[in-house]
């Protein structure tokens, strides 16, 4: 079985350089096969959790070993991926001889680390997904919302600034954005929401425009809104939260208006929590290698950010300041964002989107919890921030 698995892993990543999306799809298929192998492997295992934890940790350590925050690291992406593939295979093979108690945690974790680390090392050639906060606040306020919406007061994006940013971005990257998400907060709270969709489509004709909503206001939207959504083929994407709300009725209303609607997460029960840790003891590369958010590019005030965490952390900083005048701040470095009015061209954008940012040192991926029960936010800072 191990020879088979090794052969499979050798084919694992050196795929022909197609689009990033295709690479990801191939990778996902391979990882599914790998998962099957790992499950079979488990059948042959018994075990000791601490030894697994050591091996598990060493997979990550190996993935980031010796790598510094320099451009050099990413220059030869393919070689690094192959190295990771070999290393991971060796490490997983060692598991064959070591039994362990808790296979679910270990297998899931190894799978996530190998998959995510490899995927995160691809050079980004275009913007796969661009998120734009139409408003920052929300009418649902989920505990630990990773856009920090429960921590902000009402805040609406300006239509003219959005238009100017979209124009500048299109002159910079051409029509290379695959998907534009109008998001928040709750985007339907913005009285001019239709205009954002029109502008996004005007400058990025090939991009898929999606409006990501909690659905609560959908049935109140006026006819003009629906006409615009239909005209620009905007897709309404919603999440089913465990609240007293008729999602089926809501989605039927969208369908009746002739607009596409999809359910993002069926009956979400848990949120992911990636704690921010102000101690800066987290190693940036280690976080980056495991990060599930690196293709969640954010556009905010004429700047591109790698993720919502870095783009909106000022909400956290302001909240800490309000609660405690001496509160520490999560610092934003000039390398944490790219000013779209200053770079020379697409290459600089690609470079920015292919590397970790200094802010990664705050994201404590080792303590990520993917099973935080969904509930309303108590607006307590520990929903997002860990004590040192
Ligand atoms: S509905 Fe979405 S934006 Fe609103 S608080 Fe929940 S997770 Fe955040
Ligand atoms: S700061 Fe880095 S590790 Fe944290 S969410 Fe953003 S890209 Fe991921």
Describe the structure.
The protein has 388 residues and is α/β, with parallel strands linked by helices. It folds into 2 domains: 2-120; 130-386, TIM Barrel, CATH 3.20.20. 43% of the residues lie in helices and 13% in strands. The strands form 3 sheets. Strands 5-4-3-2-1-8-9-10 form an 8-stranded mixed beta sheet. Helix 1 runs antiparallel to helix 5 (77-97), helix 2 runs antiparallel to helix 6 and helix 8 packs parallel to helix 9. Residues 8-17, 44-53, 63-78 and 96-105 have low confidence and may be disordered. The chain binds iron/sulfur cluster (2 copies). One iron/sulfur cluster (SF4) is lined by residues 287-288, 291, 293-294, 306-307, 309-310, 356-357, 359-360, 363.
